[in-house]
Write a structure and sequence with these properties.
Elements lengths: L1 E5 L5 E6 L2 H8 L6 E9 L4 E12 L3 H10 L1
Antiparallel strand pairs: 1-2, 2-4, 3-4
Length: about 70
């Protein structure tokens, strides 16, 4: 799953995914501003698991990101 939304500053879009394959593709995109992981603590195992990522891009890439989503 991938979700693309406007950040709110009218300059940035955010792509959220919880799939590793899509995340690895987004990591290699040029003009990536930052990555924010979503983590969940697993108390029974004493570990922290990454459950998703927010990828921040300039708004100018919104169309190309949307096309990428359509292909998946």
């Amino acid at each position: 799953m991938i979700e693309i939304r406007d950040f709110g500053d009218k300059k940035t879009v955010v792509a959220y995914t919880d799939e590793g394959k899509i995340a690895s593709k987004l990591r290699t995109r040029s003009k990536l501003i930052k990555i924010v992981p979503y983590e969940q603590e697993q108390y029974s195992k004493g570990k922290v698991a990454t459950v998703g990522f927010d990828f921040y891009f300039p708004k100018s890439l919104k169309k190309s990101l949307s096309r990428m989503v359509e292909k998946l």
